[in-house]
Amino acid sequence: MGISRLFGRTPDPQANQTLPNGEPRLPPGQTLTHKWPILTHETTPRFDPAAYRFRIWGAVEQPLELTWEELQALPRVQLTADFHCVTTWSRYDNAWEGVAIRDLLARVKPKPEAKYVLAHSWTGYTTNMPLADLDDDDTLVAFKHDGEEIEREHGGPVRLIVPKLYAYKSAKWLSGLEFLEQDSPGFWEQLGYHNHADPWTEERFW
Ligand SMILES: Nc1nc2c(c(=O)[nH]1)N[C@H]1C(S)=C(S)[C@@H](COP(=O)(O)O)O[C@H]1N2
Ligand SMILES: [Mo]
User: Fold this and answer.
1) 88 C-alpha to center of ligand 2: Å?
2) Phi, psi at residue 156, to the nearest 5°?
3) pLDDT exceeds cutoff 60 at 117
4) Is residue 157 reached through a cis peptide bond, with omega within 30 degrees of 0 on the bond before it?
5) Residue 156 has what DSSP assignment?
6) Of 6, 99, 136, 142, which has the most beta carbons under 10 Å away?
7) Per-residue pLDDT tens digits for 36-52
8) Is 105 helix (H, G, I), strand (E, B) or coil?
9) Which ligand 1 atom sits nearest the alpha carbon of residue 85?
């Protein structure tokens, strides 16, 4: 009988899985949770669909401004991804539905000098990342989680999802994406969270 049986806990078999690339599915220093904690710095904001605009601007050929209805009308994809918070919890198999970032990139056509992206929330929260990390087939502007509209506390009705970076890069209440030639640290990044945030190399803090 294993020590965990003695303590009345069964080890979670999912915690020992590996990814196709051979890396552990659970990044180092993380603990698997089946709940979905809420991590928010600001107060959960109101959402006004009539006033909402989704914007992409900066170093792009075709800046984009969409109403809520126009954003809702874009083709959608579904994606299942793990979610890793820098405060050491991970939640597996989140089923997201939304607009693929690559569809948006095809519309706005980033200029060659665009190297970074700053995601903006309508609360004023921001988070930065290299365009190379955003430009992937697993990043999306999400409206649904596990089949339901995303709850307000979790960033509903629209949030960014960048599964391969710590979740502070996945801005809740997303209002736009600013394309930049130079990097520009976002909210947590200015306060000491790691600028890049790769969970597998534990890029947690400066
Ligand atoms: N606007 C905004 N987006 C945010 C945050 C925040 O405080 N404000 N927190 C980030 C962090 S640190 C995490 S772990 C995830 C948490 O998402 P959840 O509350 O849906 O679990 O949102 C990220 N996006
Ligand atoms: Mo987080």
Assistant:
1) 8
2) -65, 155
3) yes
4) yes
5) T
6) 142
7) 999 999 999 999 999 99
8) helix
9) 14
